[in-house]
């Protein structure tokens, strides 16, 4: 019998069979046909400490027997409160309030609504424009597609997407084009720009494109000068991926609104949080019920997810997680250096625990035919790597070993010859 399941980002006509995973541990997935696969993309960038970390398993078990779920409007619970306090302590300065939701996309939707709601309630109703960065990705809901790069992914839905202003990606040496475009937009639309949303340091789905922390600092400075809300989408970059707990730290900035998900629970359960400054809360605070923040999802602040996320924050406090991140950062630098001068690869890049490089081919872009061929080749070698077009990136859990990375990069270096690319 064929499966009733429709898989995400999967062309079933070309990939009829799915890899059936039975269990996972550390950096490994174990399949029903007895294979061990190295999860070198942290199962879509979520798993940080490794799969099934015992502390997270225990937290889920314990909370599940106590309070499974409760409506979060008018109700609260210890896991959400404890986690909220921990997040405020860990996050960049000035973020005072935590709004829970359940995915990276909803964290971003909430951030956009907070910013727009803020200006609306402050009486600055002309501030409705959102500025985004070229090649950005913030999710697949209608709102997050609107603030992301337009292309093959969202072409059929274009009539539903709202207009945004785009600043160019800050390619090395061309950073000033990004900041100048932003300043030009501000001059052209005085008092109309509500917010800027960016992925700090690394644009993930856009191709693991990396840019300098100084750009982030400059963008924040410009936002401050023009009263524009600075939203940092740290959904992918948070929880150590770029070498620090949050990527913004490397620019020495604190965003006005910060979105986090993925590694928030160590990659164990779906949960998201949008952290904001007090002023966003205050703008909605009123005896007037029409000013409340109109956003919720059924599972907002699910107690089990919150308990696991709190256990994750405890791991960061009590285990040498930062030392593991630092060691992986050094290891990734060592590995990627091996490709220096390699005739078949280019654009070697690394930011903290993330490394990426491009296979030199004529057929580039997300729909490049080499991506599925590379994917299958890696699967055949016991590796879960999911190239973005001709870009191969390695974004592993922090528990991956040097030996696994040695093997992985060896398999990768042979790929162009074996596949005849
Ligand atoms: N924002 C960024 C930067 C992301 O990388 C992603 C997902 O990859 C999202 C938002 C959307 O997250 P989710 O898939 O959990 O909705």
Description:
A hairpin with a 5-residue loop joins strand 8 and strand 9. Helices cover 35% and strands 16% of the residues. The protein has a seven-stranded mixed sheet, sandwiched between helices. Helix 2 runs antiparallel to helix 9, helix 3 (78-90) runs parallel beside helix 9 (303-318) and helix 4 (104-121) packs across helix 8 (278-284). The chain folds into two domains: 21-52 and 320-419, Aspartate Aminotransferase, domain 1 (Alpha-Beta Complex), CATH 3.90.1150; 56-318, Aspartate Aminotransferase, domain 2, CATH 3.40.640. The mean pLDDT is 97. The chain has helices spanning 42-45, 54-64, 78-90, 104-121, 142-146, 175-188, 213-225, 278-284, 303-318, 321-337, 370-380, 402-419, and strands at residues 21-25, 28-31, 36-39, 97-101, 129-133, 165-167, 193-198, 202-203, 209-210, 229-233, 257-260, 272-276, 345-351, 354-359, 383-384, 391-394. Pyridoxal-5'-phosphate is lined by residues 103-105, 108, 137-139, 199, 204-205, 233, 235-236, 261.
């Amino acid at each position: 019998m064929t499966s009733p399941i429709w898989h995400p980002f999967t062309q079933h006509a070309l990939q009829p069979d799915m890899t059936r995973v039975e269990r996972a541990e550390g950096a490994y997935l174990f399949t029903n046909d007895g294979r061990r696969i190295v999860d070198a993309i942290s199962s879509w960038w979520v798993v940080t400490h490794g799969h099934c970390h015992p502390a997270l398993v225990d937290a889920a078990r314990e909370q599940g027997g106590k309070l499974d779920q409760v409506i979060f409007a008018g109700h609260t619970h210890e896991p959400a409160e404890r986690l909220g306090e921990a997040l405020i302590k860990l996050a960049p300065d000035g973020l005072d309030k935590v709004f829970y939701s359940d995915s990276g996309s909803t964290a971003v939707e909430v951030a956009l609504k907070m910013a727009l709601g803020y200006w609306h309630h402050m009486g600055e109703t002309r501030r409705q424009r959102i500025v985004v960065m070229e090649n950005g990705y913030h999710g697949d809901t209608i709102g997050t597609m609107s603030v992301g790069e337009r292309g093959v992914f969202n072409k059929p839905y274009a009539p539903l997407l709202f207009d945004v202003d785009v600043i160019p990606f800050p390619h090395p040496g061309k950073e000033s084009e990004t900041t100048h475009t932003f300043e030009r937009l501000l001059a052209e639309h005085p008092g109309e720009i509500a917010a800027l949303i960016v992925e700090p340091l690394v644009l993930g789905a856009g191709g693991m494109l990396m840019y300098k922390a100084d750009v982030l600092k400059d963008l924040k400075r410009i936002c401050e000068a023009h009263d524009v809300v600075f939203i940092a989408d740290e959904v992918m970059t948070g929880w150590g991926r770029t070498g620090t707990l949050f990527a913004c730290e490397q620019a020495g900035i604190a965003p006005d609104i910060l979105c986090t998900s993925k590694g928030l629970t160590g990659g164990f359960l779906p949960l998201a949080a949008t952290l904001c400054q007090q002023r966003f809360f205050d703008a909605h605070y009123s005896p007037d019920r029409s000013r409340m923040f109109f956003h919720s999802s059924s599972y907002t602040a699910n107690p089990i997810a919150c308990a696991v996320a709190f256990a994750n924050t405890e791991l960061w406090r009590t285990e040498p997680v930062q030392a593991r991140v630092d060691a992986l950062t050094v290891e990734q630098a060592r590995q990627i250096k091996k490709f220096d001068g390699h005739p078949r690869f280019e654009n070697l890049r690394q930011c903290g625990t993330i490394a990426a490089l491009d296979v030199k081919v004529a057929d580039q872009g997300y729909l490049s035919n080499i991506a599925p061929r590379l994917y299958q080749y890696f699967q055949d070698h016991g590796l879960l790597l999911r190239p973005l077009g001709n870009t191969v990136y390695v974004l592993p859990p922090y528990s991956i070993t040097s030996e696994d990375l040695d093997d992985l990069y060896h398999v990768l270096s042979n790929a162009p010859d074996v596949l005849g690319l």
